[in-house]
Specification:
This is histidine kinase. With about 450 residues, the protein is an alpha+beta fold. The chain has 3 domains: about 1-60; about 60-65 and about 90-215, GAF domain (Beta-Lactamase, 2-Layer Sandwich); about 285-450, Heat Shock Protein 90 (2-Layer Sandwich). The protein is about 50% helix and about 20% strand. It has 13 helices and 12 strands. It has helices at about 5-25, 30-55, 75-90, 100-110, 145-150, 200-240, 245-260, 265-280, 290-310, 330-345, 375-385, 395-405, 435-450, and strands at about 115-120, 125-130, 155-160, 175-180, 185-195, 285-290, 310-320, 325-330, 350-360, 365-370, 415-420, 420-430. The strands form 3 sheets. A 5-stranded antiparallel β-sheet has the order 2-1-5-4-3, sandwiched between helices. A hairpin with a 2-residue loop joins β4 and β5. The longest helix is centred in the middle third of the chain and has 41 residues, at about 200-240.
Length: about 450
Protein backbone atom coordinates (compact mmCIF):
# COMPACT_ATOMS: atom_id res chain seq x y z
CA UNK A 1 0.00 0.00 0.00
CA UNK A 2 2.84 2.37 0.71
CA UNK A 3 4.01 2.16 -2.92
CA UNK A 4 0.53 2.94 -4.27
CA UNK A 5 0.09 6.34 -5.92
CA UNK A 6 -2.07 8.90 -4.20
CA UNK A 7 -5.74 8.90 -5.04
CA UNK A 8 -5.64 12.28 -6.72
CA UNK A 9 -2.92 11.11 -9.10
CA UNK A 10 -4.96 8.08 -10.11
CA UNK A 11 -8.11 10.18 -10.57
CA UNK A 12 -6.23 12.73 -12.67
CA UNK A 13 -4.83 10.05 -14.98
CA UNK A 14 -8.26 8.45 -15.33
CA UNK A 15 -9.82 11.82 -16.23
CA UNK A 16 -6.98 12.50 -18.69
CA UNK A 17 -7.62 9.24 -20.51
CA UNK A 18 -11.34 10.09 -20.85
CA UNK A 19 -10.52 13.57 -22.15
CA UNK A 20 -8.15 12.13 -24.77
CA UNK A 21 -10.86 9.72 -25.97
CA UNK A 22 -13.50 12.44 -26.16
CA UNK A 23 -11.30 15.03 -27.87
CA UNK A 24 -9.99 12.62 -30.52
CA UNK A 25 -13.55 11.41 -31.15
CA UNK A 26 -14.96 14.91 -31.64
CA UNK A 27 -12.31 16.62 -33.76
CA UNK A 28 -11.07 15.61 -37.23
CA UNK A 29 -7.83 13.69 -36.92
CA UNK A 30 -5.90 11.25 -39.08
CA UNK A 31 -6.47 7.57 -38.25
CA UNK A 32 -2.79 6.94 -37.43
CA UNK A 33 -2.69 9.67 -34.78
CA UNK A 34 -6.12 8.69 -33.49
CA UNK A 35 -4.99 5.08 -33.02
CA UNK A 36 -1.89 6.24 -31.12
CA UNK A 37 -3.93 8.58 -28.92
CA UNK A 38 -6.47 5.86 -28.13
CA UNK A 39 -3.74 3.37 -27.26
CA UNK A 40 -2.17 5.84 -24.82
CA UNK A 41 -5.59 6.67 -23.35
CA UNK A 42 -6.49 3.01 -22.91
CA UNK A 43 -3.16 2.29 -21.22
CA UNK A 44 -3.65 5.22 -18.82
CA UNK A 45 -7.21 4.11 -18.05
CA UNK A 46 -6.23 0.49 -17.38
CA UNK A 47 -3.22 1.48 -15.27
CA UNK A 48 -5.30 3.99 -13.28
CA UNK A 49 -8.00 1.42 -12.69
CA UNK A 50 -5.51 -1.16 -11.44
CA UNK A 51 -3.99 1.38 -9.07
CA UNK A 52 -7.47 2.34 -7.89
CA UNK A 53 -8.01 -1.28 -6.92
CA UNK A 54 -4.84 -1.16 -4.86
CA UNK A 55 -5.83 2.12 -3.21
CA UNK A 56 -9.21 0.84 -2.07
CA UNK A 57 -7.94 -2.66 -1.30
CA UNK A 58 -10.66 -4.53 -3.16
CA UNK A 59 -11.22 -8.15 -2.07
CA UNK A 60 -8.89 -10.70 -3.68
CA UNK A 61 -10.01 -13.28 -6.23
CA UNK A 62 -12.10 -16.18 -5.00
CA UNK A 63 -9.34 -18.59 -6.03
CA UNK A 64 -5.90 -18.79 -4.48
CA UNK A 65 -2.87 -17.92 -6.58
CA UNK A 66 0.73 -18.27 -5.63
CA UNK A 67 3.19 -15.42 -5.34
CA UNK A 68 6.08 -15.25 -7.73
CA UNK A 69 9.02 -17.43 -6.63
CA UNK A 70 12.48 -15.99 -6.52
CA UNK A 71 14.37 -16.43 -9.75
CA UNK A 72 14.34 -14.85 -13.22
CA UNK A 73 12.17 -11.75 -13.30
CA UNK A 74 9.04 -11.70 -15.44
CA UNK A 75 7.65 -8.76 -17.42
CA UNK A 76 5.38 -6.45 -15.48
CA UNK A 77 1.70 -7.28 -16.29
CA UNK A 78 0.88 -3.60 -16.94
CA UNK A 79 3.79 -3.30 -19.37
CA UNK A 80 2.78 -6.51 -21.12
CA UNK A 81 -0.82 -5.30 -21.36
CA UNK A 82 0.33 -2.06 -22.98
CA UNK A 83 2.50 -3.94 -25.52
CA UNK A 84 -0.39 -6.22 -26.44
CA UNK A 85 -2.84 -3.32 -26.68
CA UNK A 86 -0.58 -1.46 -29.10
CA UNK A 87 -0.49 -4.50 -31.39
CA UNK A 88 -4.16 -5.44 -30.90
CA UNK A 89 -5.84 -2.19 -31.93
CA UNK A 90 -5.46 -2.58 -35.73
CA UNK A 91 -6.93 -6.10 -35.60
CA UNK A 92 -10.04 -4.98 -33.68
CA UNK A 93 -11.13 -2.41 -36.24
CA UNK A 94 -13.53 -4.93 -37.83
CA UNK A 95 -14.87 -6.12 -34.47
CA UNK A 96 -14.46 -9.41 -32.66
CA UNK A 97 -14.63 -11.80 -35.62
CA UNK A 98 -12.64 -14.99 -36.24
CA UNK A 99 -9.75 -13.30 -38.00
CA UNK A 100 -9.36 -10.64 -35.30
CA UNK A 101 -9.65 -13.22 -32.51
CA UNK A 102 -6.97 -15.42 -34.05
CA UNK A 103 -4.62 -12.47 -34.44
CA UNK A 104 -5.23 -11.43 -30.83
CA UNK A 105 -4.60 -14.95 -29.57
CA UNK A 106 -1.30 -15.11 -31.49
CA UNK A 107 -0.17 -11.73 -30.14
CA UNK A 108 -1.08 -12.52 -26.53
CA UNK A 109 0.46 -16.00 -26.52
CA UNK A 110 3.66 -14.69 -28.09
CA UNK A 111 3.97 -11.77 -25.65
CA UNK A 112 2.53 -13.03 -22.37
CA UNK A 113 4.64 -16.17 -21.82
CA UNK A 114 1.66 -18.49 -21.36
CA UNK A 115 1.23 -21.94 -22.88
CA UNK A 116 -2.05 -21.27 -24.70
CA UNK A 117 -4.59 -18.51 -25.30
CA UNK A 118 -8.24 -18.67 -26.36
CA UNK A 119 -10.44 -15.78 -27.49
CA UNK A 120 -14.17 -16.55 -27.59
CA UNK A 121 -17.49 -14.95 -28.39
CA UNK A 122 -20.57 -15.96 -26.39
CA UNK A 123 -20.94 -19.31 -28.18
CA UNK A 124 -17.61 -20.73 -29.31
CA UNK A 125 -13.84 -20.35 -29.47
CA UNK A 126 -12.93 -17.88 -32.23
CA UNK A 127 -9.14 -17.89 -31.91
CA UNK A 128 -6.58 -20.27 -30.36
CA UNK A 129 -2.81 -20.03 -30.09
CA UNK A 130 -0.12 -22.00 -28.29
CA UNK A 131 0.02 -25.57 -27.11
CA UNK A 132 -2.48 -27.67 -29.03
CA UNK A 133 -5.19 -29.64 -27.28
CA UNK A 134 -7.64 -31.92 -29.10
CA UNK A 135 -10.44 -30.71 -26.84
CA UNK A 136 -10.06 -27.03 -27.77
CA UNK A 137 -9.52 -24.90 -30.83
CA UNK A 138 -11.46 -22.56 -33.11
CA UNK A 139 -15.07 -23.64 -33.45
CA UNK A 140 -15.27 -25.67 -30.23
CA UNK A 141 -18.21 -24.88 -27.96
CA UNK A 142 -17.74 -23.19 -24.61
CA UNK A 143 -17.86 -24.93 -21.26
CA UNK A 144 -20.59 -24.11 -18.78
CA UNK A 145 -17.96 -22.52 -16.56
CA UNK A 146 -16.94 -20.09 -19.30
CA UNK A 147 -20.57 -19.20 -19.92
CA UNK A 148 -21.03 -18.53 -16.20
CA UNK A 149 -17.97 -16.28 -16.14
CA UNK A 150 -19.52 -14.16 -18.92
CA UNK A 151 -22.91 -14.17 -17.22
CA UNK A 152 -21.56 -13.16 -13.80
CA UNK A 153 -18.74 -10.99 -15.22
CA UNK A 154 -16.18 -12.31 -12.76
CA UNK A 155 -12.70 -13.74 -13.27
CA UNK A 156 -12.20 -17.39 -12.39
CA UNK A 157 -9.05 -19.49 -12.08
CA UNK A 158 -9.24 -23.27 -11.94
CA UNK A 159 -7.79 -26.49 -13.27
CA UNK A 160 -9.04 -27.49 -16.69
CA UNK A 161 -10.45 -30.77 -15.39
CA UNK A 162 -12.78 -28.70 -13.20
CA UNK A 163 -14.45 -26.98 -16.17
CA UNK A 164 -18.12 -27.91 -16.07
CA UNK A 165 -19.30 -29.16 -19.43
CA UNK A 166 -15.78 -29.36 -20.86
CA UNK A 167 -14.30 -32.36 -22.60
CA UNK A 168 -12.29 -34.94 -20.69
CA UNK A 169 -8.56 -35.55 -21.02
CA UNK A 170 -7.50 -31.93 -21.50
CA UNK A 171 -3.70 -31.78 -21.52
CA UNK A 172 -3.61 -28.18 -20.28
CA UNK A 173 -3.27 -27.71 -16.54
CA UNK A 174 -4.69 -24.43 -15.26
CA UNK A 175 -6.75 -21.66 -16.86
CA UNK A 176 -7.81 -18.15 -15.91
CA UNK A 177 -11.01 -16.95 -17.62
CA UNK A 178 -11.94 -13.27 -17.86
CA UNK A 179 -15.05 -11.81 -19.51
CA UNK A 180 -14.99 -9.27 -22.35
CA UNK A 181 -17.67 -6.63 -21.86
CA UNK A 182 -18.88 -4.05 -24.39
CA UNK A 183 -21.79 -1.64 -23.88
CA UNK A 184 -22.56 -3.31 -20.56
CA UNK A 185 -23.01 -6.70 -22.28
CA UNK A 186 -20.67 -9.70 -22.18
CA UNK A 187 -19.52 -10.31 -25.74
CA UNK A 188 -16.85 -12.97 -25.17
CA UNK A 189 -13.97 -14.04 -22.99
CA UNK A 190 -10.19 -14.35 -22.87
CA UNK A 191 -8.65 -17.53 -21.47
CA UNK A 192 -4.98 -17.93 -20.50
CA UNK A 193 -3.70 -21.50 -20.02
CA UNK A 194 -0.62 -22.71 -18.14
CA UNK A 195 0.30 -26.37 -18.65
CA UNK A 196 1.09 -27.01 -15.00
CA UNK A 197 -0.68 -28.62 -12.09
CA UNK A 198 0.72 -25.93 -9.78
CA UNK A 199 -1.27 -22.91 -8.72
CA UNK A 200 -1.36 -20.14 -11.31
CA UNK A 201 1.19 -17.33 -10.84
CA UNK A 202 -0.36 -14.11 -9.61
CA UNK A 203 1.04 -12.16 -12.58
CA UNK A 204 -1.00 -14.32 -14.99
CA UNK A 205 -4.22 -13.50 -13.15
CA UNK A 206 -3.31 -9.80 -13.15
CA UNK A 207 -2.45 -10.00 -16.83
CA UNK A 208 -5.78 -11.65 -17.69
CA UNK A 209 -7.65 -9.01 -15.72
CA UNK A 210 -5.76 -6.15 -17.37
CA UNK A 211 -6.12 -7.62 -20.87
CA UNK A 212 -9.87 -8.14 -20.43
CA UNK A 213 -10.34 -4.56 -19.30
CA UNK A 214 -8.17 -3.15 -22.08
CA UNK A 215 -9.72 -5.25 -24.87
CA UNK A 216 -13.22 -4.41 -23.62
CA UNK A 217 -12.44 -0.70 -23.67
CA UNK A 218 -10.76 -0.96 -27.07
CA UNK A 219 -13.80 -2.72 -28.53
CA UNK A 220 -16.12 0.02 -27.27
CA UNK A 221 -13.87 2.78 -28.62
CA UNK A 222 -13.45 1.04 -31.99
CA UNK A 223 -17.22 0.44 -32.15
CA UNK A 224 -17.87 4.15 -31.56
CA UNK A 225 -15.44 5.05 -34.33
CA UNK A 226 -16.97 2.48 -36.67
CA UNK A 227 -20.44 3.90 -36.03
CA UNK A 228 -19.24 7.36 -37.04
CA UNK A 229 -17.71 5.88 -40.19
CA UNK A 230 -20.85 3.87 -40.92
CA UNK A 231 -23.02 6.96 -40.56
CA UNK A 232 -20.90 8.80 -43.12
CA UNK A 233 -20.43 5.78 -45.36
CA UNK A 234 -24.14 4.96 -45.27
CA UNK A 235 -25.04 8.32 -46.81
CA UNK A 236 -22.36 7.95 -49.47
CA UNK A 237 -23.20 4.33 -50.22
CA UNK A 238 -26.90 5.15 -50.31
CA UNK A 239 -26.26 7.84 -52.92
CA UNK A 240 -24.04 5.56 -54.98
CA UNK A 241 -26.44 2.62 -54.68
CA UNK A 242 -29.64 4.48 -55.46
CA UNK A 243 -28.24 5.82 -58.73
CA UNK A 244 -26.32 2.70 -59.71
CA UNK A 245 -26.75 2.17 -63.46
CA UNK A 246 -28.72 -1.07 -63.64
CA UNK A 247 -31.33 -0.03 -61.04
CA UNK A 248 -31.80 3.40 -62.59
CA UNK A 249 -31.86 2.08 -66.16
CA UNK A 250 -34.36 -0.67 -65.31
CA UNK A 251 -36.76 1.82 -63.73
CA UNK A 252 -36.33 4.30 -66.57
CA UNK A 253 -36.96 1.55 -69.14
CA UNK A 254 -40.14 0.65 -67.29
CA UNK A 255 -41.26 4.30 -67.32
CA UNK A 256 -40.48 4.60 -71.03
CA UNK A 257 -42.51 1.46 -71.76
CA UNK A 258 -45.50 2.86 -69.85
CA UNK A 259 -45.18 6.19 -71.67
CA UNK A 260 -46.33 4.43 -74.87
CA UNK A 261 -49.31 2.69 -73.27
CA UNK A 262 -50.26 4.60 -70.11
CA UNK A 263 -48.93 8.15 -69.94
CA UNK A 264 -50.52 8.85 -66.54
CA UNK A 265 -48.86 5.79 -65.02
CA UNK A 266 -45.50 6.81 -66.52
CA UNK A 267 -45.83 10.28 -65.02
CA UNK A 268 -46.69 8.84 -61.58
CA UNK A 269 -43.67 6.51 -61.71
CA UNK A 270 -41.38 9.37 -62.65
CA UNK A 271 -42.64 11.33 -59.63
CA UNK A 272 -42.05 8.28 -57.44
CA UNK A 273 -38.52 7.90 -58.78
CA UNK A 274 -37.73 11.54 -58.04
CA UNK A 275 -39.16 11.10 -54.53
CA UNK A 276 -37.03 7.99 -54.05
CA UNK A 277 -33.80 9.82 -54.88
CA UNK A 278 -34.77 12.87 -52.84
CA UNK A 279 -35.48 10.81 -49.72
CA UNK A 280 -32.18 8.96 -50.00
CA UNK A 281 -30.32 12.28 -49.76
CA UNK A 282 -32.55 14.31 -47.46
CA UNK A 283 -31.91 12.65 -44.11
CA UNK A 284 -28.61 13.16 -42.26
CA UNK A 285 -29.25 11.86 -38.73
CA UNK A 286 -28.72 8.30 -37.46
CA UNK A 287 -32.44 7.64 -36.90
CA UNK A 288 -35.75 8.38 -38.60
CA UNK A 289 -39.42 7.93 -37.69
CA UNK A 290 -40.67 4.49 -38.71
CA UNK A 291 -43.48 6.04 -40.78
CA UNK A 292 -40.88 7.85 -42.94
CA UNK A 293 -38.79 4.70 -43.36
CA UNK A 294 -41.94 2.78 -44.33
CA UNK A 295 -42.88 5.43 -46.88
CA UNK A 296 -39.42 5.11 -48.40
CA UNK A 297 -39.85 1.31 -48.60
CA UNK A 298 -43.27 1.73 -50.15
CA UNK A 299 -41.84 4.00 -52.85
CA UNK A 300 -39.16 1.43 -53.65
CA UNK A 301 -41.70 -1.40 -53.88
CA UNK A 302 -43.98 0.71 -56.08
CA UNK A 303 -41.14 1.18 -58.57
CA UNK A 304 -40.15 -2.49 -58.50
CA UNK A 305 -43.74 -3.76 -58.80
CA UNK A 306 -44.17 -1.62 -61.92
CA UNK A 307 -41.10 -3.33 -63.32
CA UNK A 308 -41.99 -6.93 -62.36
CA UNK A 309 -45.75 -6.69 -62.72
CA UNK A 310 -47.70 -9.62 -61.29
CA UNK A 311 -44.49 -11.42 -60.32
CA UNK A 312 -44.12 -9.15 -57.28
CA UNK A 313 -46.74 -8.57 -54.63
CA UNK A 314 -46.18 -6.85 -51.33
CA UNK A 315 -47.96 -6.12 -48.05
CA UNK A 316 -47.03 -3.57 -45.37
CA UNK A 317 -48.71 -3.67 -41.95
CA UNK A 318 -47.68 -1.23 -39.21
CA UNK A 319 -49.39 -0.78 -35.84
CA UNK A 320 -50.46 2.89 -35.40
CA UNK A 321 -48.61 3.21 -32.09
CA UNK A 322 -45.34 2.26 -33.84
CA UNK A 323 -45.42 4.96 -36.54
CA UNK A 324 -43.43 7.58 -34.59
CA UNK A 325 -40.87 5.20 -33.11
CA UNK A 326 -37.32 6.19 -34.19
CA UNK A 327 -35.39 3.53 -36.13
CA UNK A 328 -31.95 3.64 -37.82
CA UNK A 329 -32.18 5.31 -41.21
CA UNK A 330 -31.91 3.03 -44.27
CA UNK A 331 -32.58 -0.11 -42.22
CA UNK A 332 -35.65 -1.64 -43.86
CA UNK A 333 -35.10 -0.76 -47.52
CA UNK A 334 -31.87 -2.80 -47.89
CA UNK A 335 -33.63 -5.80 -46.34
CA UNK A 336 -36.65 -5.41 -48.63
CA UNK A 337 -34.38 -5.13 -51.65
CA UNK A 338 -32.52 -8.27 -50.63
CA UNK A 339 -35.89 -10.04 -50.44
CA UNK A 340 -36.84 -8.87 -53.95
CA UNK A 341 -33.51 -9.29 -55.74
CA UNK A 342 -32.16 -12.41 -54.01
CA UNK A 343 -35.41 -14.05 -52.93
CA UNK A 344 -38.02 -13.51 -55.63
CA UNK A 345 -36.35 -12.82 -58.97
CA UNK A 346 -35.26 -16.45 -59.41
CA UNK A 347 -38.64 -17.78 -58.28
CA UNK A 348 -40.75 -19.39 -61.01
CA UNK A 349 -44.07 -18.31 -59.50
CA UNK A 350 -45.22 -14.89 -58.27
CA UNK A 351 -43.67 -13.92 -54.95
CA UNK A 352 -44.73 -11.94 -51.89
CA UNK A 353 -42.74 -9.54 -49.71
CA UNK A 354 -44.28 -8.46 -46.42
CA UNK A 355 -43.21 -5.93 -43.79
CA UNK A 356 -44.86 -6.12 -40.37
CA UNK A 357 -44.14 -3.79 -37.43
CA UNK A 358 -45.74 -3.96 -34.01
CA UNK A 359 -44.82 -3.14 -30.41
CA UNK A 360 -44.31 -6.07 -28.04
CA UNK A 361 -43.96 -4.93 -24.42
CA UNK A 362 -41.17 -2.32 -24.39
CA UNK A 363 -39.77 -3.15 -27.83
CA UNK A 364 -40.65 -2.57 -31.46
CA UNK A 365 -40.44 -5.77 -33.49
CA UNK A 366 -40.27 -5.66 -37.29
CA UNK A 367 -40.42 -8.64 -39.65
CA UNK A 368 -39.32 -8.51 -43.30
CA UNK A 369 -40.43 -11.73 -45.00
CA UNK A 370 -40.53 -13.26 -48.45
CA UNK A 371 -41.65 -16.60 -49.89
CA UNK A 372 -38.72 -16.79 -52.27
CA UNK A 373 -35.99 -19.32 -52.94
CA UNK A 374 -34.48 -19.14 -49.43
CA UNK A 375 -30.85 -19.13 -48.30
CA UNK A 376 -28.75 -22.30 -48.00
CA UNK A 377 -28.05 -23.11 -44.35
CA UNK A 378 -24.30 -23.20 -45.03
CA UNK A 379 -24.36 -19.53 -46.05
CA UNK A 380 -26.62 -18.12 -43.35
CA UNK A 381 -23.81 -17.62 -40.81
CA UNK A 382 -21.55 -15.96 -43.40
CA UNK A 383 -24.18 -13.32 -44.16
CA UNK A 384 -23.61 -11.69 -40.77
CA UNK A 385 -19.81 -11.76 -40.94
CA UNK A 386 -18.71 -8.12 -40.81
CA UNK A 387 -18.00 -6.81 -44.30
CA UNK A 388 -20.21 -9.40 -46.02
CA UNK A 389 -23.55 -9.08 -47.71
CA UNK A 390 -24.88 -6.82 -50.41
CA UNK A 391 -28.03 -4.93 -51.26
CA UNK A 392 -28.27 -1.31 -52.39
CA UNK A 393 -24.71 -0.95 -51.07
CA UNK A 394 -25.94 -1.68 -47.54
CA UNK A 395 -25.71 -5.41 -46.80
CA UNK A 396 -27.24 -7.32 -43.95
CA UNK A 397 -24.01 -7.16 -41.99
CA UNK A 398 -23.98 -3.37 -42.33
CA UNK A 399 -27.54 -3.11 -41.01
CA UNK A 400 -26.77 -5.51 -38.16
CA UNK A 401 -23.64 -3.55 -37.19
CA UNK A 402 -25.46 -0.23 -37.08
CA UNK A 403 -28.29 -1.61 -34.95
CA UNK A 404 -25.89 -3.12 -32.41
CA UNK A 405 -23.78 0.03 -32.41
CA UNK A 406 -26.76 2.27 -31.67
CA UNK A 407 -28.58 0.10 -29.15
CA UNK A 408 -26.08 -2.54 -27.93
CA UNK A 409 -25.76 -6.32 -28.39
CA UNK A 410 -29.21 -6.95 -26.87
CA UNK A 411 -30.75 -5.53 -30.06
CA UNK A 412 -29.67 -7.49 -33.07
CA UNK A 413 -30.91 -8.80 -36.38
CA UNK A 414 -32.07 -12.41 -36.66
CA UNK A 415 -32.58 -14.44 -39.81
CA UNK A 416 -34.63 -17.56 -40.42
CA UNK A 417 -34.61 -19.16 -43.88
CA UNK A 418 -35.42 -22.44 -45.59
CA UNK A 419 -34.56 -23.28 -49.17
CA UNK A 420 -37.67 -23.32 -51.33
CA UNK A 421 -39.80 -21.80 -48.56
CA UNK A 422 -38.52 -18.27 -47.99
CA UNK A 423 -36.72 -15.98 -45.59
CA UNK A 424 -37.71 -13.87 -42.58
CA UNK A 425 -35.54 -11.23 -40.97
CA UNK A 426 -36.50 -9.97 -37.51
CA UNK A 427 -35.37 -6.63 -36.13
CA UNK A 428 -35.89 -5.39 -32.57
CA UNK A 429 -35.65 -1.76 -31.43
CA UNK A 430 -36.29 -0.13 -28.04
CA UNK A 431 -39.66 1.60 -27.71
CA UNK A 432 -39.57 5.14 -26.30
CA UNK A 433 -41.04 5.36 -22.81
CA UNK A 434 -43.72 7.68 -24.12
CA UNK A 435 -45.04 9.07 -27.39
CA UNK A 436 -43.72 12.46 -26.30
CA UNK A 437 -40.20 11.05 -26.11
CA UNK A 438 -40.50 9.66 -29.66
CA UNK A 439 -41.74 13.00 -30.98
CA UNK A 440 -38.89 14.85 -29.26
CA UNK A 441 -36.34 12.42 -30.73
CA UNK A 442 -37.66 12.87 -34.25
CA UNK A 443 -37.93 16.64 -33.73
CA UNK A 444 -34.24 16.72 -32.77
CA UNK A 445 -33.44 14.79 -35.96
CA UNK A 446 -35.43 17.33 -37.98
CA UNK A 447 -33.43 20.17 -36.44
CA UNK A 448 -30.19 18.38 -37.34
CA UNK A 449 -31.40 17.97 -40.93
CA UNK A 450 -32.08 21.69 -41.14
CA UNK A 451 -28.55 22.66 -40.16
Amino acid sequence: MKNSPKLWVVTTLWALSIIILLVTAMIPIRHGWRALAWTVAVFLAVWAWRQMVVVFQTPPQAVIVESEPSGPSHPDPAETTFQIGTQALPHLRQGLNRQAAQSLADIIQRTAEVDAVAITDTMQVLGWAGKSCPQHGPGSLLSETTRRVMQDRVIRTLKTDELQGAYDECSLGTVVIAPLVSHDQSVGSIKLYVASEALLPNRIVQLAEGLAQMLSLLMEVVEADRQRSLAADARLEALQAQIRPHFLFNVLNTIIAFSHTDADRARDLLIQLASFFRRSLAHHGPTIALKDEIEYVNTYLTLESARFGDRLRYRIRVAPEALDVPVPVLTLQPLVENAVIHGLINKDKPGMVSVTAKPIKDRLVIYVSDNGVGIPKSKQYEIFEMGSGSGMGLGLSNVAERIMGLYGPAYHLRLRSREGVGTTVRLVFPMPKSKKEAVLTNHAESINRGR
